[in-house]
């Protein structure tokens, strides 16, 4: 049974965590009511409210950097360049994005660059109490409530003003040390599950997603179908950039020269399995030279049962970002609808 507390507001918790951490939160990019939302460092006594909106960019770059140096070679020796972040808090991460971080924790388990950042990050999740646009987390066991092993602390909005705080990990408990907190009551706990249950029942049914996953795992989709989708893929990498579980990367050397010496920095950067060059081998043989093969590969990585033994779940957490960003109309809803209807 997790320890639960009651908060009248979030300020005191934010102020307390800020004594030992940098705090990052989702905020609007401008005062314009139509502005997008993004992750940003906050503080200096002016604590923003938690917003309901899901930001277009997930927090994956906090741990898996978009571009980073791996090592430097000065002509004689190699020197590893490990990141040295100060402790930080991601305050108010949605359940789907927490599940994606949990997924990447497994993928990058032995990656020292990812782990150096991950060890400094405290995750404060927030339960969703209303379904988001395009989201289907409840179909893929990623939300709308924060799953136990994906965060350190969880916030739940009880009644518009008060919050329940749930402690999920030893790091979460440690971070609260010195903060005077009131215990939550059994009624508060009941209210949390009522709110979550109401949210789960409010999602559209999205039956075609379940049918699509079923057909994909029965290998009942023709190659012609994938080829048709391939024609629509512009190879822009919008989906793989925004997808919180995508982890493809490549490396390249960048040379820098001074009057004293020349050195080479090996840099890692996000890549995309939808680029023509991604799987091209040194011999120039390409096992996925056609766009349709690459689109097929992407969707198998998201929904194939083959990956469940390794990750304990599908590679999709139901955030809906691919649908929101794809200019070729081959995001998850569009693809699954077409698979269910006519693949
Ligand atoms: S997909 Fe679910 S957990 Fe993610 S933002 Fe939408 S409702 Fe919340
Ligand atoms: S495949 Fe689409 S819906 Fe699934 S996690 Fe990635 S971006 Fe979100």
Automatic annotation (TrEMBL):
Coiled-coil boundaries: none
Annotated GO MF terms: iron-sulfur cluster binding; metal ion binding
Domain 4Fe-4S ferredoxin-type, first and last residues per copy: 307-335
Pfam family, any one: Fer4_22
Keywords assigned: Iron, Iron-sulfur, Metal-binding
Keyword check for Iron: yes
Domain of life: Bacteria
Name this polypeptide is given: Putative 4Fe-4S ferredoxin iron-sulfur binding domain-containing protein
Origin organism lineage: Bacteria, Pseudomonadati, Pseudomonadota, Gammaproteobacteria, Vibrionales
């Amino acid at each position: 049974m997790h320890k639960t507390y009651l908060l009248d507001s979030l300020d005191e918790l934010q102020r307390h965590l800020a004594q030992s951490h940098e705090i990052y939160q989702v905020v609007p990019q401008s005062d314009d009511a139509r502005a997008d939302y993004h992750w940003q460092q906050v503080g200096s006594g002016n604590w923003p409210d938690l917003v309901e909106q899901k930001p277009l960019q997930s927090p994956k770059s906090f741990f898996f950097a978009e571009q980073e140096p791996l090592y430097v070679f000065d002509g004689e020796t190699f020197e590893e360049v490990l990141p040295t972040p100060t402790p930080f808090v991601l305050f108010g991460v949605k359940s789907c994005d927490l599940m994606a971080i949990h997924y990447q924790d497994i993928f990058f388990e032995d990656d020292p660059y990812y782990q150096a950042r991950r060890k400094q990050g405290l995750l404060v999740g927030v339960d969703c109490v209303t379904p988001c646009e395009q989201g289907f987390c409840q179909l893929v066991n990623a939300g709308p409530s924060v799953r136990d092993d994906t965060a350190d602390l969880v916030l739940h909005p009880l009644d518009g003003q008060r919050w329940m705080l749930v402690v999920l990990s030893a790091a979460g408990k440690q971070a609260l040390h010195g903060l005077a907190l009131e215990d939550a009551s059994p009624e508060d706990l009941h209210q949390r599950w009522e709110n979550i249950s109401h949210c789960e029942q409010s999602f559209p049914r999205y039956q075609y997603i379940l049918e699509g996953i079923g057909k994909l795992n029965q290998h009942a989709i023709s190659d012609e179908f994938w080829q048709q989708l391939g024609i629509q893929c512009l190879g822009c990498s919008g989906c793989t950039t925004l997808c919180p579980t995508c982890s493809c990367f490549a490396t390249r050397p960048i040379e820098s020269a001074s009057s004293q010496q020349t050195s080479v920095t090996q840099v890692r950067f996000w890549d995309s399995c939808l680029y023509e060059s991604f799987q091209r081998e040194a011999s120039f043989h390409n096992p996925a030279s056609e766009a349709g093969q690459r689109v097929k590969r992407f969707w198998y990585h998201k929904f194939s049962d083959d990956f469940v033994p390794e990750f304990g779940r599908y590679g999709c957490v139901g955030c809906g970002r691919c649908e929101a960003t794809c200019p070729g109309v081959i995001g998850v809803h569009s693809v699954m609808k077409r698979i269910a209807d006519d693949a």
